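Notes from hallway chat w/ T.B., transcribed later so I don't forget. T.B. wanted the structure written out for a chain they're using in a teaching module, and asked if we could keep both sequence and structure tokens in one place. Agreed to drop them here.
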Amino acid sequence: MSKPTYANLYNLDSFKTLQNEIKTKGNFKDALPNGLIMGRSLEYIDPKIFEQQYPDLTFEQTGVCIDNSGGYATSITKRKRGISGEFREVNDDASNKGKISLIGEKGSLLVHSYEAHSNWTRTEVAQASVENRDIVGEFISAHNEIYRRDIDTIFYIGKGTITEGISNYSGFATDTASGYISTLTGQQAYRTIANFIEAQWTAAVNVKSYMANIVILPVEVNNYLAKTPYGVNENPDTVLTVLKKNFPEIKFITTYQANKTGNVTAISNSDNALSFRIPLPLEFSDIFIHGFKGEFDTAYRIAGIDVSENIAGRHLAGLIA
């Protein structure tokens, strides 16, 4: 297992093949630096195409390990080993000798397949070329963007038959805040988050691998912490600034996905605590040309989050409606 890298999120070999396909199977032009003057109306066409904007995708910031094992298997069985037993006094006749045993646990995760495709006509390619656009490149970029959104969604809240992500995982203990974040003073907000982090560390009995080093905040909670003064001894710092100073081990990450559950979530990103299973990362097919039409397919296979120790995470509910 490894930290998120392009090699874990994408099938890089398929990208190389795709590059060759683009060169040999179509006249696909990149945009030129200058705009176009269209004689029919002396209309200037801005070469920049303004993309619709979406909230930041933050899974890659978590540092959670991506596990690409499993391939085309329909399910993944994970195993965990524990130890039980004790030594006993030799002269304790009632107890006989102590016994030490190995405890084996296992669980199973289903693997889900996702596919998509795009197609275009020769006319669309020619029209895009007049505008100095690379329509196939735009399709490739669109597939990548949708894939990244899927990964973000599945990691945080699940998708389709993957019903749980890290922000709504039912195996984590849940604390409940005393009130909505907007009703708390700076000091109360600080103590609420600090107590929550300390509660997770205590539940993990200070085992480094299970102690949270990531705190995932809904947007509303982050914004309140980032603008509200801490308010102790005329300290001008915001609550979030003081939290970062006092908990340097913690990386605070904000995602709109957490708004959907309402939970603040603390997790350890150690590979002994949890991982994110993507048996087959995103791959592109060859580009297929059929007469005057072209197309390509993309696919990936995913099992979602794999939590090895439930004490490695914790939820805080009740801060937002």
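Follow-up for T.B.: The first helix runs from residue 6 to 9. Might be a good example for the class.
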